[in-house]
Amino acid sequence: MWEDILKRRDARQYAEGFENDNEFNDVIGDEFDYVMGGIKEKYYSYFDEDRKEYFDILIHKTGRFLNQFDYRRTLRGVKGVKKMVNQFDLPDLDFLIEVLELKANQPETNS
Length: 111
Hints:
single chain; mainly alpha; globular
């Protein structure tokens, strides 16, 4: 069921559908928290201690970049998480990456 809903979401509309970066940040921040929380809940227990520490540091730094409206660095961090869980099919994570790629490639605006 969720996969059908995710397929219907259009990343371009999602990335461009907000009046300003503050609104986008609120929504994409919630999406980021949801996706990372799901990964931590489902797959974190399978990581060794070094990977757990790396994952925690990576999502902390990535969240900080998102709060600073630095979408390129945020995208780099999310792709780093994707590499850690690449063996799993995670459509939410793929959607988050697609939206961040679109937003990172948009011309900068003053918020």
